[in-house]
Structures are given as C-alpha cells and as structure tokens.
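Service request form, structural biology core

Requester: graduate student, group of Dr. S.
Request type: structure prediction, single chain
Budget code: on file
Notes: please return the result as structure tokens.

Sequence provided:
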Amino acid sequence: MEQTTETVILLRLKSGSASLGEIAGAAGISKMAALKHVRQLEERGLVERKTVKAKVGRPYYLFSITDSARSDFRNSDSAVLTALLEYLKVTGNQGIVEDFLKVRYEEYRQRYESEMQQADADTRLKKLVALREKEDYMPELHRISENTYEFLEKNCPIFKMAKNYPVSCSMEQRLFSNVLQMDVDATHRQTDGTGTCRFLIRKRHSVQ
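Core staff response, request fulfilled:
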C-alpha cells in the first residue's frame, strides 16, 4: 500500500528532527511542496518547528514531531506488546518481565561503561548523548551551571514497558548515575504524560 506524502514526512520526523531540504529529499518532492505539507501538519498539531542559527548564512528551521503526536503513534507490534504485558500482569507472571528488566539493565551498564572507560566527566556526558541518540531516545544535554546539567529524552522506545512496569524508569535513572559516576534526579517522565523525560545531573566533586 502506497504511503501518503504526509505519512512519509511523519515517519521521517519520527526518527529525528529534519530541515525542510531533508524532508523534501525523504518525500521525493520539492521544498515548496514539502513546506505546504509541513504547514498542514503544523495546523493539525502534529509537527512543530524551531529556528536554528547557522554558523554561516541565514538562520533556518528544524522540524520535529510534537510530543502529543509522538505518543499517538501506534503499530501492530506495540499493540501486541501492550497486550502481552497486561496478560503477564493479570496472570501473575510479571516476575518474568522484572527479570528481563534486570538483565537488560546489566547489559546496558556493561556496554555503556565499556564506552566510557577512563573518560572524564564531560566526555562521559557526551558519550551518553551519543549512545542514547543511536537508540532513538532523541536526547538533549544542556549545561545549567558549572556542575549541573539538564538531560532530556524526547522519545521513549520502551514507553509501553515503562507504562506497565515503572521500575524500568528507576532503572534508567540508576543506569545513568552508575555509568556517569554522577548524581542523577528524574524530574519529569513521559509515562506521567509530560512528553519528555527530564533528568538533572550533578557532578560529584570527588570525580574528575
């Protein structure tokens, strides 16, 4: 079944923000035509834009899916996963999921730590952003003060899991704290309807 142009645009933006030229390329249309479709998606509350200052030349727009649109994405896999998680919980087999989450945490911890060996604090933060970007979490890192950072994740690939098993969220927080060797506090979670996971990360004075 052939996809509509707007569907193609949404699927492209689902993987990350894009310029008008990148959207046009993904859809195989002109920039003018792409702008027309993007405006229609903006009017429907599915797409938003932000102005980016270029190092050289005029500022340009980056387009992305809105938080509400992202939460509305549905497919057969996610529907089946939701049904499976609910079935395990109803039948008293949630321990299987909890065991899986523990194994997943340990695998991630080992992999992240191998990427961050002997790195200083700022490098560990950059590596975390790069790792989460590859895993489609759409991360952003902002420095608040000399020792404090704001870490945002605008997409949650394990949203269905986290919604049914909140312990997975606390495991993510503990994962960050352990691999970064920093103090991490979660202030917002997508499972609470905020649309973005937000963490405050503070350097420990004893760690260089």
